[in-house]
Amino acid sequence: MSFDILLNPNVAYLILVGAALLTMMAVLNPGTGVLEIVALFLWLISGYIIFNIPVNFWALGLLLLGLVLFLLSLRKTKNLVYLGLSIAAVIAGSIFLFDQPGWQPAVNPILAVVISVFVAGFTWIVAQKALEADSMMPAHDLEALVGAVGEAKTNIRDEGTVQVAGELWSATSEEAIPEGAHIKVVGRDGFSLVVEIIDDQD
Q: Which residue stretches of 29-178 are H helix?
């Protein structure tokens, strides 16, 4: 039957890895939804595979251990030793993921090594970059500018530019503010300042 190819352990392994990799990429880089749709499709195929091929639960446990070690290498210690242990656990779990008589490896060991090293290395680099971007703090604390006064450098309606504390900032206002008017920062909206016009007669 045409679906028999999916039950080949090597093909099944590649599909499972693809589903997991695309899911991780979708979590790290949400966007168009294409990754999510393809990942869901691969997980549906994976469900069919797992239903039809017996799985060694101890090997599945090794894969989960590899995931925990991988997360440790990213968040807690950032130590390559944990990444190496993670790859080793994933390789062992991958080779014996599907149950075969006589403790024979179901997945080609060379395929498991190459794919595990590639996926772990690629994902580790991408995840590191994503975590670094997430942890980057703005160069300035916009909350600290609340109450500061400055000058509108453009006409401000829904948005515009103001000069506050010697620097130019994007700004929004509920009322129209003409260029050159004195303004006061009353809040923030994301990376923009929320400002209002100052009555110069005050």
A: 34-52, 57-71, 80-95, 109-135
